[in-house]
């Protein structure tokens, strides 16, 4: 650039030639192209995530060959978590997006309410369940991969319950004595 400017000023004073100025202009344009190419190549060396997060796992070390399609890092977002759950298909029909469900994270001793964000239109025939996603409220102290329980209200089912202390093990079975007719003890397995 300095040489080009000097020769242009000399050309105005008829102290240089037009060919020399054109040659310097071509060299300057080539140098600018090399700088742009270097800036673009430098951009390829910079990793940017489309979200705010942290590096969860580093899959490549210094000196490893980075080839297209092979992952270098696993990035984990620090916000906008979702709970993925399999909802029994018998209960899925009663759910609509926006329905608040209770979620328990037993490892953290945490319970919160999460709205249903998405309920799949396809069911898993083998498990008789429907995939669902719930939105975790912002600021909730959860981590990806944690085990959670989602509580759903279902129809009441009649059940016969007995205290665990009333059961007596017998091999692989459990036996229980109940009061029968004439106040006699009857054995039930």
Compose a concise summary of this entry.
The protein is built from 3 helices and 10 strands.
Q: How many whole angstroms does the radius of gyration measure? A: 36 Å
Structural class based on helices, strands and sheet pairing: alpha+beta
Average pLDDT confidence is: 89
Low-confidence stretches: none
Read across the widest sheet, the strand sequence of neighbours is 3-6-5-4-7
Question: Total number of β-strand segments?
Answer: 10
Largest sheet: 5 strands, antiparallel
Order of SSEs: HHEEEHEEEEEEE
Helix proportion range:
10-25%
Quote the beta fraction: 25-35%
Silhouette: rod-shaped
Tally of individual helices: 3
Distance between the termini: 97 Å
Describe the structure in your own words:
By secondary structure, the protein is of the alpha+beta class. It contains 3 helices and 10 strands; from the N terminus they run H-H-E-E-E-H-E-E-E-E-E-E-E.
Helices, strands, pairings?
Layout: H1 2-12, H2 18-44, E1 53-58, E2 73-77, E3 82-88, H3 89-92, E4 100-105, E5 110-119, E6 129-135, E7 149-151, E8 168-170, E9 173-179, E10 185-188
Antiparallel strand pairs: 1-2, 3-6, 4-5, 4-7, 5-6, 8-9, 9-10
Helix pairs in contact: 1-2
């Amino acid at each position: 650039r300095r040489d080009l400017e000097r020769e242009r000023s000399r050309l105005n004073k008829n102290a240089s030639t037009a060919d020399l100025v054109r040659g310097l202009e071509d060299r300057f344009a080539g140098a600018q192209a090399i700088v742009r190419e270097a800036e673009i190549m430098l951009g390829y060396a910079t990793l940017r995530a489309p979200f705010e997060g942290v590096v969860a796992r580093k899959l490549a070390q210094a000196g490893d060959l980075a080839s297209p399609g092979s992952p270098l890092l696993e990035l984990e977002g620090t916000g906008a978590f979702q709970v993925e759950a399999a909802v029994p298909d018998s209960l899925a029909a009663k759910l609509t997006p926006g329905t608040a469900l209770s979620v328990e994270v037993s490892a953290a001793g945490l319970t919160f309410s999460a709205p249903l964000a998405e309920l799949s239109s396809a069911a898993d025939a083998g498990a008789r369940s429907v995939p669902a996603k719930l939105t975790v409220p912002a600021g909730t102290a959860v981590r990806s991969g944690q085990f959670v329980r989602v509580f759903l209200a279902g129809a009441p089912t009649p059940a016969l319950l007995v205290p665990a202390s009333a059961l007596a093990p017998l091999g692989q079975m459990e036996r229980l004595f109940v009061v029968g007719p004439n106040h006699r003890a009857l054995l039930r397995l």
